[in-house]
Amino acid sequence: MKNLYGFLGAREKVMRGVFLFSAIFSILALATITVFLFVSGVPFIAKTGFARFVFGGNWAPLADNPSYGIFPMIVASLYVTALSFLVGIGIGFLTAIALYKFCPKRLVAPIRQMINLLAGIPSVIFGLFGMTVIVPFVRDYVSPTGVGYGILSASLVLGIMILPTIVSVSLDSLNSTPNTYYEGALALGATKEQAVFKIMLPAAKSGILSGVVLAIGRAIGETMAVVMVIGGSPEMPESLFQSVRTLTANIAMGALELNGDALSALIATGVVLFVFTLILNVSFSLLKKENRDSVAVKEGRGAKK
Questions:
Q1: Which one of 13, 206, 217, 225 is least enclosed by Cβ atoms within 10 Å?
Q2: Contacts for 228 with CB less than 8 Å, ≥ 6 apart
């Protein structure tokens, strides 16, 4: 018996050490990447000038008089992310609601499994699909200029790519909400739609916001699929059907060709992208905290009454 307890105790210590090592490794990996970006990129931003680098409108690192303005790519990244967010949220959110209460139960598991399979498809396949299907369709039937490559095509591809994240997280959040809320709403005379949209969705709002954050992070950081369908011209976006370049596409297109100050400019672009993503995550975290605090206040008032 003592040997058994000793074995169990030793195994517990080993697993505790494995978990601690995993946590420390994750923190060290994040710290290493952060230090690399800021040590390599911030000096270049300081040398070039923050305003000139971030708000400059011309990117020409190989010119006789090099220019390193990334503002057009920042704007293009915002456009692509926002439009893909609308596409992904619109389709994914309604899909999650349909699977939650409006779809026959025998079809929920197969449909969800097919949606989850999208998460395992390599991004280059999405890019290839965009090049051979979405770009020609946009060029022939949507674009007034006859150009298929651009913001709209990239947004449609990214919208499809973030669907599994939005559907899975939203559906899990809805399923984790106590079903008594739904049954109570029906008992009080609410319709099925009213019970879902006015009771269950607000109750699952925190988890759904987490899915939104993950989806936006995926959209901002996606590179290969965007490079294949967005065109690649470092110009200020003026149309959804214009060839432009995002921050990630800019890094990918020049990483193997540029060196010296031009390579430092790409690393500095990574710093801007890193800070932008960090601000986005912190903003959503504060929003979730504010929502939890407001719910707690309302519950406290209800208890007093």
A1: 13
A2: 124, 127, 128, 130, 131
203, 208, 210: which is closest to 180 by C-alpha? 203
The vertex-62 CA angle with 61 and 63, nearest 5°, equals 100
Is residue 231 predicted with pLDDT exceeding 70? Answer: yes
What distance separates the 2 farthest-apart alpha carbons in the chain? 80
Q: What is the pLDDT of residue 289?
A: 67
| 130-162 confidence digits (pLDDT tens) | 999 999 999 999 888 888 899 999 999 999 999
CA distance 273 to 173: 29
Q: Helix (H, G, I), strand (E, B), or coil: what is residue 220?
A: helix
Question: Could you give the CA distance from residue 195 to residue 189 in angstroms, rounded to a whole number?
Answer: 9
User: Is 90 exceeded by the pLDDT of residue 67?
Assistant: no
Tokens at 55, concatenated:
């708000």
| Alpha-carbon dihedral 24, 30, 252, 77, rounded to 10 degrees | 130
Rounded Cα distance between 137 and 135, Å, is: 5
Task: Compute CA distances 141 → 137, 147, 166, whole Å.
Answer: 6, 10, 29
CB 77 within 8 A of CB 154: no
Q: Give 305's pLDDT tier (boundaries 50, 70, 90).
A: low
80's CB contacts (< 8 A; 6+ apart) are 151, 154, 155, 158, 219, 226, 230, 246
**pLDDT confidence tier of residue 291, bands split at 50, 70 and 90:** low
Burial of 67 (0-12, 13-18, 19+ CB in 10 A): middle
* pLDDT at residue 156 in the model: 93
